[in-house]
Amino acid sequence: MQNLLNTIKDQLETGKLNELSAMAADMHPADLAHAMESLTDQEKRDVFQALDPKTATEVVVELSEYSRDQVLEGLHPNKLAEIVDELPSDEATDIIAELPTDQAREVLSRLDEEDSDEVRALLIYDEDSAGGIMQLELVSILESQTASEAIEAIRIKREEVEDIHNLFVLDNQSRVVGMLPLSKLILADPLTRIRDIMEPCPLFIQADEDQEAVAHKFRRYDVVSAPVVDAKGRLMGRITIDDVMEIMQDEAQEDIARMAGISGEDEMFLSRDSFKMSRMRLPWLLVNLGGGLVSGWLLWHFKMRLADALFLLAFIPVIMAMAGNVGVQSATIVVRGFAVGQINMDNIRAILFKEIRVALIMGVVCGLTAGTVAFFWHHNPYLGLVVGLAMTSAISAASILGTLAPALFKLLNVDPAISSGPVVATLNDIMGLLIYFGISTIFYTLLVQ
């Protein structure tokens, strides 16, 4: 990798752009894109400008969203139109959608009428919907046709359609009535009617469905491609497994970023705009700051009692830390469960009771351990009791909060990943302090006697 980067940088510095272009043409597009991610923004643009149109088309879809924006910035409309013209309709639409309005309009005007109409048709759909990720390139066949006619249809569209997994079988009204796997078609007698060898279509996608719901359906039905249909069941396009894999990766990255209280955008890793990155991260840090100030106020509020029982201070960090960790664990489990479709509002009660049972077991074990340490450390049995009860109660409460918070966000149609990380951790810190000081107050006279 480092040798490749050094070679690319050397060719850029010495102006050997023809050599760079030839080397890039012989590389796998994913390898070149991976190397380009480590270059500066200007170096990325220089490399991309040196690529021939075919290589540029293959590389641009492998780049991260941030790097793609950088290499397309300022690119001549003619070259950009050449790249878009060679891409499948869904990927061409993604690129056009990311361009400024004037540049997108100019590129569309340079495409041939059919390609331009296809892109315009897909642009009306939300980028996170099934319509936003579907391809218009596909092979369909009437149920009354024969296997030999189906194979001829594939030959006709061989240059247009990539990765043919299934042929979609239609009736006379263009409604999807089944599907025919390519392997089954190859083995069929040439004169066999399609209706006699087709299989039921296990999955139909509506164009306005959320892409995450589409990914869950692909996982459930274990399919490699599925038709997108309108309200009458007429074929509109297709979604393939590679699109779904990208969705799952993007959603997972977005959830992880949001659990940390930051944006899921590529700019978080690649952007050199410090002010932009700060704006993305500050809001949730301010949530933590607010929670920390509330915790500080609680400590100040109980200062008089702490003055006579300073040994209570020694156990504040461990109780807050344990409660915070358990809360984040529970929230992570629930957020992930929602993301992969294993948890929903129908079974959240069972998940909650399970988490409470687990939390009680962990709380009792940790509470007994912390209470025993407190007793032998300060030779005060009531301190051991207070610490043990507080630890058990704080862990149990944190688990309940960590389970319910994502469910509440889900019910409010807010991404449940937002509820993890900063929100749960901050609330658990406050709740842990309240529980600890509340139990300490109950046993205060026994503690200081």
TrEMBL record:
Main location: membrane
Localization (cell): Cell membrane; Membrane
Listed PROSITE patterns: CBS
Molecular function, one GO term: magnesium ion transmembrane transporter activity
Entry-linked InterPro entries: CBS_dom, CBS_dom_sf, Mg_transptr_MgtE_intracell_dom, MgtE_N_sf, MgtE_transporter, SLC41_membr_dom, SLC41_membr_dom_sf
GO cellular component entries: plasma membrane
Annotated keywords: CBS domain, Cell membrane, Magnesium, Membrane, Metal-binding, Transmembrane, Transmembrane helix, Transport
Stated family: Belongs to the SLC41A transporter family.
Protein name: Magnesium transporter MgtE
